[in-house]
Write a structure and sequence with these properties.
single chain, 314 residues, alpha/beta, Peroxisomal Thiolase, Chain A, domain 1, 2 domains, four-stranded mixed sheet, 19% strand, globular, binds coenzyme A
Length: 314
């Protein structure tokens, strides 16, 4: 499709494969619903027990209704609050942060957070600087009140709208509604100034992860797992190095899925779950369009091997 090579992509990004949602009329909600069905079955949760569903996505099926509304309908979750969160690649961190507030104030007991994006819908497959990077995917987590001292301990979210110039989709919103001209000019695709985004991503992810470590009296050597947003293997490595975390304690799935925007962190947790032990200290960190960035500190609450096999959790 474009003038590129496997060697360039592997060396500059670490990506070897990506997943693309195929099929007429399928949108982000179809992947989100699949993830939620798996989550409900694995955790033996009935749809009627869910109190709230939040979907982080930048590629909603429609401008409205929200993808969260559609996912609820598809999985049989009725009469609850559900809404989308749009914070680009930091969307999952933002959504987890919001969910945590509703759990800690006692308002809700079971919240599903979905991270889902069909990036192939907004990628220009004639632009070699972006089309080799992004993929489609979805993941979901269930957030409940802690049964032990383990759980989500701290969360930080930040944004800087001045970053919009470096990473955005120009047309399709209220500022530039779709027209034959916007389509002809290919303005409905991701516009990314890779080098600028790269620089901010490393600086901001390491900075916010460092801040969350410091305010929880931690340092990199005390962390069992860093779960970074998967945008580029070199960004992941640079962030880990700045935090003093060796790569054997960093979750990396970019080689399999590419950058799936809001889905990268739940997909990492899915892939590595069998290796997680109760009490493992974990930092989630992300950076994305906006600019947005954020970090979560948690200690893992379950026996990962049992949970990954779908057995009842501890
Ligand atoms: N194949 C071959 N060459 C390519 C290419 C591709 N797929 N994509 C870009 N290039 C070329 C460019 O055209 C440029 O050529 P030029 O010097 O002749 O103009 C050269 O490679 C260097 O481009 P540059 O953008 O500086 O490359 P880079 O090393 O910064 O890597 C990215 C590009 C996009 C992989 C990298 O900048 C990146 O990962 N940025 C951050 C992306 C990100 O995190 N985005 C999401 C935020 S959540």
């Amino acid at each position: 499709m474009v003038d590129t090579s496997d060697a360039w992509i592997t060396e500059r990004t670490g990506i070897k494969e990506r997943r693309i949602l195929k099929g007429e009329g399928l949108g982000t909600s179809h992947m989100g619903a699949e993830a939620v069905r798996g989550l409900l079955s694995k955790t033996a949760t009935k749809p009627e027990d869910i109190d709230l569903l939040i979907c982080a996505t930048t590629t909603p099926d429609y401008v409205f209704p929200s993808t969260a509304n559609l996912v609820c309908d598809m999985v049989g979750v009725r009469n609850i609050g559900s809404f989308d969160v749009q914070a680009a690649c930091s969307g999952f961190i933002y959504a987890v942060t919001i969910a945590t507030q509703f759990i800690s104030n006692g308002h809700y007991r079971k919240i599903v957070v979905v991270g889902a994006d069909k990036m192939s819908a907004i990628i220009d497959y004639t632009d070699r600087a972006t089309c080799v990077i992004f993929g489609d995917g979805a993941g979901a987590v269930l957030i409940e009140p802690a049964k032990s001292t383990n759980g989500i301990i701290d969360a930080l979210i930040r944004s800087d709208g001045a970053g919009a110039v470096h990473l955005h989709q120009k047309a399709g919103g209220s500022r530039m509604p779709p027209s034959p001209e916007t389509v002809a000019k290919r303005l409905h695709y991701v516009h990314q100034e890779g080098a600028a985004v790269y620089k901010f991503a490393i600086a901001r992810m390491a900075e916010i992860a460092g801040e969350i470590l410091t305010r929880n009296q931690l340092n990199g050597s005390m962390i069992d797992w860093l779960v970074p947003h998967q945008a580029n293997k070199r960004i992941i490595e640079a962030t880990a190095e700045r935090m003093g975390i060796s790569m054997d304690r960093v979750m990396v799935t970019i080689q399999k899925y590419g950058n799936t925007t809001a889905a990268t962190i739940p997909l990492c947790l899915w892939d590595y779950e069998a290796r997680l032990k109760p009490g493992d200290k974990i930092i989630l960190a992300a950076f994305g369009g906006g600019f947005t960035w954020g970090a979560v500190y948690l200690t893992w609450a379950y026996d990962g091997a049992k949970a990954a096999n779908g057995h009842a959790r501890l």
